[in-house]
Amino acid sequence: MPYTPGNAKNGAKLFKTRCAQCHTLEEGAANKVGPNLHGLFGRKTGQVEGFKYTEANKKAGVTWSEDTLFDYLENPKKFIKGTSMAFAGFKKEKERNDVIAHLKESC
């Protein structure tokens, strides 16, 4: 199932509790355990300057869009085999849609 517009307010809460410990959203903010996500949409995997990606991420060649993020966020390790992202994923479609809506507003 593809992305459908979610609730950005709910997505912000999910991001804060499940993503913000590893990722930042603000332009120019530092990378953490995961890369800064500012400018995510339209960017290819493994492209944030200064972040040490796995070879799998560098070579995946995925361009981030609502639909690719929707699939990735369900199970990152299945989507990009060899990624170092430890997050198990958002199994609920609504949660993925909400987080993506928040990212669209914040990135």
How much strand content do the residues show? Answer: under 5%
What is the number of helices? 5
Global geometry? globular
| First-residue to last-residue Cα separation | 23 Å
Q: Which H/E pattern describes the elements?
A: HHHHH
Provide the gyration radius in Å: 13 Å
Largest β sheet strand count, sense and barrel closure: none
Unreliable parts: none
Helical/strand content category: mainly alpha
- The residue-averaged pLDDT reads 97
Q: Considering DSSP H and I runs of 4 or more, what fraction of the residues is helical?
A: 40-55%
Q: Count the strands?
A: 0
What does this protein structure show overall?
- It contains 5 helices and no strands.
- It starts with 7 loop residues before the first helix and ends with a helix.
Concise overview:
With 107 residues, the chain is mainly alpha-helical. It has five helices and no strands.
Considering the chains and any ligands shown, give keywords for the structure:
single chain, 107 residues, mainly alpha, 5 helices
SSE inventory with pairings:
Blueprint: H1 8-18, H2 55-60, H3 66-74, H4 76-79, H5 93-106
